[in-house]
């Protein structure tokens, strides 16, 4: 004989659908009612209510052990609409009614606890967003200090030297030439050109030295003084 009972109770907590079946002959009604009452109490103590057509379900099957009418065999199945747990079975050999109910109640408590623990979603971890590191600040270049007296004297000396170099170049380009005022006489401009080149070169060197000394006094040893040719002569760069 196969009998089934489904309990419907108003819900206040997490719902649970309970079904108890038995194949014990004339003991069916008594076993089914007492097992149902025990499991209902267990569910209530765990803040779950027994309702109809709930997502989480528990079925308890009670039957005689094979070939015996004194030993019980109980199987508990817990499942939901999404997954199912492995069935749990136990044998209650030569048990009286109290022992059968106590063991079934204990197994039902464990099944209900595991059912709702596994159904809970894992809490989402609030991963803090790493703070953006401030942009690297490029140190401002040191301010250039103005030229001192030596610096200006050096620039003047370099200017005089450049003029001397230009004049020397012009004289050398003339070489030996006749004067317009006296076409019969021949004059050699090369000595004057060499002299002008020598004076001009000395003035450029002296001016460069003065500029370097002025920059070192200003505490900017890394400043380099460069003299480069330009379209109008020599150009002084720092």
| N- to C-terminal distance | 111 Å
Overall mean pLDDT: 77
Architecture of the largest domain in CATH? 3-Layer(aba) Sandwich
Gross morphology: rod-shaped
Approximately how much helix is present in the residues? Answer: 25-40%
Number of strands: 10
What does this structure look like?
The chain is of the alpha+beta class and 238 residues long. It has two domains: 3-119, TolB, N-terminal domain (Rossmann fold), CATH 3.40.50.10070; 149-237, no CATH class. Helices cover 40% and strands 23% of the residues. It is built from four helices and ten strands; from the N terminus they run ββαββββααββαββ. It has helices spanning 28-45, 97-119, 149-174, 190-217; strands at residues 3-6, 14-23, 48-50, 57-64, 72-79, 88-92, 176-178, 186-188, 226-230, 233-237. Strands 1, 2, 3, 4, 5 and 6 form a six-stranded mixed beta sheet that branches. Helix 1 crosses helix 2 (97-119) and helix 3 (149-174) packs antiparallel against helix 4. It is rod-shaped, with a radius of gyration of 56 Å. The N and C termini lie far apart (111 Å). The model is unreliable at 1-11 (pLDDT under 50).
